[in-house]
Amino acid sequence: MPRTPTTPAQISGHRFLVRRVEHALVRADARMLHDPLRTRGRAVAAGAALLVLVLAGTVILGLIRPRDGAADADLLLVRDTGALHVRIDDRVHPVANLASARLVLGQPAEAVRVGPDALAGIAAGHPVGIPAAPDIAAGDPASAPPSVGVCEEAAPGLHEPVLVRSTVVRMGELPAGGASALVTDGEATWLVHDGRRARIDVGDPVLSRALGLAAAPVRPVGAHLLAAIPERGPVTVPHVPGQGDPSGFPAPFDVVGTVVAVGQRRVVVRDDGAVDVAPVVADVLAAGGGVRTATEVELAGIPVAAGIDAGGLPGEIPDWAPAEGWLCVDADAETTTVTHGRAPHDVVPYPGADGTGPGVDGFSSPLRSTTAVDTGGGVHLVSAGGARHLVENRGALAALGYPSTVAVPWRVLAAFREGPELTKTAALAAI
Questions:
Q1: Is 118 part of any domain?
Q2: H or E element: which one contains 396?
Q3: Contact indicator for 338, 176 with CB cutoff of 8 Å
Q4: How many CA atoms lie within 13 A of 188 on its CB side?
Q5: How far does CA 196 lie from the centroid of its chain?
Q6: With 90 as the cut, is the pLDDT of residue 36 above it?
Q7: Taking a C-beta distance cutoff of 8 angstroms, is the pair 100, 420 a contact?
Q8: End of a domain among 57, 80, 96?
Q9: Pairwise CA distance, residues 128 & 137, whole Å
Q10: Rounded Cα distance, 273 and 250, in Å
Q11: What is the pLDDT of residues 74-102, one digit of tens each?
Q12: 116 near 129, Cβ under 8 Å?
């Protein structure tokens, strides 16, 4: 059957009964001779409406005429001009940049935006700051890439030999390395292998034959890339103590220093046994006395001796990098890698780039912002343009807004273009 609709009289009666129940609960009186609850409700509604109007007016006024904070702010940014001013004692000084202002204040202060007329009633001071200080983030800074590197491109010119044509420093992820190369700085020849460099005498016939140096390309190298590679002792013929003395073992293990081929293995005899050696080491040692042969059964009767110093020799003949193209050395706090053929991307040219000269020509990084690094001997900011700025101390670095750093080796960072030091004294200097 159809539902009977509710009439207006029923709705009004229901509301009246609800109000009587409210009166009975709140005032312990259901007679409703007066209705103060309705008056109270109207007052609350009127107050809420008034509050909303006041808040809306405040917001609108703040947008139209924001309050100038010049009266008590330490760092001011003029809206129309973008000029920064820093408060020093009772005067407001124009300051070159945010980095200088924060060094002066000793904290990562945020600038208060003010109108052009806000400075009219404040005593003005002379301009201060470090004009060439790096741009720094007003908010949280980006973390520095984990490694720094130096890259060189070598190429021949018209009627010229192969020369270093360009040198670029970079920041980024540490690449997987493993390249080996023979390089020369004009004074010495270096064997670059396993992320290290060692002087080598390419005229030594024993070393030359064992390493195939006659066919190895020798590429020129600049001072910055060479310094970025950790140095170890020069490559030498391995020394076997007591070489040539009787060992006391049966032949062919009867002479100390003898190289014995056992199948595909090579062992060298010591006074207390025999030890496996790498192919290149075996070839170098065999130059003095040849190679003798033995079986696994004969070797089984010889004690295993301690290893010998390989004299900086690689275990096998390296796959030499060509004399031309890009060669890069990248390093983080623990590892150094050498790669060939990977050109830096998005290079920012350095002022005064000299190409074949001794200077560095540019900077490459996936970031376009200033980052903080620690070399163990000091903390630095590296700008988006690749300039390194020594920071006075950790306190000054925190004042600049950089609470953390990434560890990198100084031997690589030293190749970056040097910018002015970031100190409070320099920031207070008049400009």
A1: no
A2: helix 394-399
A3: no
A4: 12
A5: 21
A6: no
A7: no
A8: 57
A9: 20
A10: 11
A11: 999 998 888 999 999 989 999 999 999 99
A12: no
